[in-house]
Each structure stands twice: as structure tokens, then as C-alpha cells.
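Researcher: Here's the sequence for the chain we discussed earlier.
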Amino acid sequence: MKLESYDYYIVATSGGKDSIACILYLLSSGIPAKKIELWHHLVDGREGSTLMDWPITEDYIRKFANAFSIKLFFSWKQGGFEREMLRENQKTAPTIFQAPDDDNIIECSCGGIRGKENTRRKFPQVTANLSQRWCSAYLKIDVCTAAINNQKRFLNRRTLVITGERAEESAARSKYKVFEPDRSDNRNGKRIKRHVDHWRPVHLWDEKEVWKIIEKFKVNPHPAYRLGWGRLSCISCIFGSKNQWATLNKIAPGRFRRIGAYEKEFGVTIHRSKSVYDQVVEGSPYSDLDPSIVKEGLGITFNNDIILNKWELPAGAFGENAGPT
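Model: Thanks. This is the structure I predict for it:
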């Protein structure tokens, strides 16, 4: 792979340490910021649901992109996680994605027309199987693929999709390939040709290397890390540890109760054998819960600097490895 040979560099970012490290590695490798695009998939969508994700994540990523002069595009499944979870005798919702139009950004829609009507009515399950852990597939992976497939600007071009999975995170992720054709690739198509590769540049890195490059650039980590979370996904992530559920119950009890109410309504818990209430009883909230950082994490505007004069390792570094497998 010749890194400099691509027309587009798309980094799928959660705002977490690993995708941030990917961006910083690209910049360190000489890829111009103007050729990089940050794509963030909004788990809760843009239609009013606030069930799953950290409220601050969207603006944190926006401020990060601005700090490094990198283009940013949002995408989501209409209605987000909650609509997909509550789907009953319905087709899956359309995908909405932002795209450039001269000097403007427009919203485009695709999908939601074909396919069978079916029912979910339960949370994604804690497994590496993406058909059962449907949040990753439907709200992130499929959304990214649809956004590439439905933009003519990627035709007859070379595109590199970059994600931050690391082998150290789980046995399943250790088997991921570092480099392979992306799901959206169609380089051998007869009518439509679209060359898209998928690269995981930090796949073989350990966590120490990830924090090292973040420290080098003095990037202010997402507030979740400063509250004690070791990995950044949703604040209500199905993979949350018992301590994380206990912390969620302490800092956002209303959100926690909504998760518990859905478990009771569905008659199927996230953990299968334990409810979120059972896990809270067994767990302990994180101790380093600075009220100002809690307020920041639960807010929608990130008011702190992205680049810090004095950088410190956050409380969650090298902490619980609770997150997607």
C-alpha cells in the first residue's frame, strides 16, 4: 500500500482514543489535512432520541475537526438506535448522510424502501456476532457503506477508509485484517468502478502507543476518559461493565431508568442473565467523578480547548476494557 496514493482518506471516528490516534498518525505520516475526512455516525440519530450516546460527543468531534482544519461529515440511521430497537413489523429506516456540494454541506437520504418488514423489540446482544449485535452493523458499518456507495465523487477514485480497531481489545478484533478491500469496494465493476480499501493503522498498537501519540499532539481526550471510562463508545453501551452501569446510574439516573424500563418491557435483558439493575448492585461507581467533567460529558457544547498546554493522562487510561468485542 502506498499511503500517499489515495484521493480520499475517510476516518470513521467515535471521538475515542483509537480513532483519534489514527487521525494523528495520518497527519504524522504527511497526509495533508485537506485530504482527510472525519465521518461520525450519530448513534441516536438527529430526530430527538437521547437514549444511548454521550451528549457531548458530537460537539467534541466538531471542535476536534476545527482544531486540525479537517472536514467533518455526520451520518445516521433515521430515528437512530431507539427507532431501530423498537421496530415492529416495519422495514429498517433510511440512512441520512452529509456530503459536500461545492462549498456547502447537504444532507442526502438512501435506503428504507426495499427489504422485508420485521421486528426487533430488544437490545443488541453482547456478542461479536454483528447480526445479533446489530447496533454496530446497522448504525455504523452499514451507514458508512451506504454513504460511500451513494456518492458519485468516489467513482473512478481511490479511497482509503480508516478505522481504529486494535488486536489488544479482544480475541475477535485480533483476527481483523490490517488491510483489505472495503465493503464498498467495486474496483472490478463493469459499469461502476469504485476503488475503496480499508486500513486499520493502529491494529497492532498497544494502549501505551495510542496515548503516546495523543500526548505528542497534546489532544484533550473526550470527557468520558477523564471520568474513568477506559474505552469510548456509548454512555449506555451494551458492553458496559457493572461499574459503568453503576456510574451511569449515579450521573444520569433518568437515562439509566429508561434502559431498565426497556429491559422489562421486552422481557429480554442486555446481559441475558442479569438486568442492568442487577449489575448496579454488583458494581461500584467510578471514584474520580469531578462534577464539572460530569456536567461537560452530559452537555452538548464542548467549551474546553482541544489542544492543551499541559497534558495529563486521563483517569480512564489503562482502565476497564469494557466495549465492543
